[in-house]
């Protein structure tokens, strides 16, 4: 089961490791749910692993943005031990490591608005929205996927928002 309604996460409201962040965007109100402190016991709670920026429209309580759930490194815990991970050693894809910021779009009044894990208004979210205005293909694909009830997820890298690596001027 997936927490497709905000009420599915009510049991986490008093947990200090989880934050429910309400924000207004262009006249609509949303609640973003994100973990703030990660520990092994947190992941034992129902739906806690989904609290990585999952976003709900306040009027309906429906999920409008479902980023990747919390994921773990190989051997980080009991269920990610190399001995039990299927097909370990048989990669299907290999990509360059790019440390950026996860951004996800939300459809607000028929417009695409990007957000980070915790905010529509962080410096990175603002920069992602400015950058996306120049990338029609990203906006078109985002709109199409959101219209189908899917959440596109992007790793945003920008010279003005370096996380670890210097990406140059583009």
Protein described:
This protein has helices at residues 123-132, 136-147, and strands at residues 18-25, 28-35, 52-57, 63-65, 101-108, 111-115, 154-156. By secondary structure, the chain is an alpha+beta fold. The chain has a four-stranded antiparallel β-sheet, with no helix packed on it. Strand 3 and strand 4 (63-65) form a beta hairpin. The longest helix has 12 residues, at 136-147. The protein is globular, with a radius of gyration of 17 Å.
Provide keyphrases for this structure.
single chain; 170 residues; alpha+beta; four-stranded antiparallel β-sheet; three-stranded antiparallel β-sheet; 13% helix
Which word captures the global form? globular
H/I helix tally: 2
| Weakly predicted, low-confidence segments | none
Tally of extended strands?
A: 7
Structural class: alpha+beta
- What fraction of the residues are assigned to beta strands by DSSP? 15-25%
Cα-atom Rg, whole angstroms?
17 Å
Span between termini: 41 Å
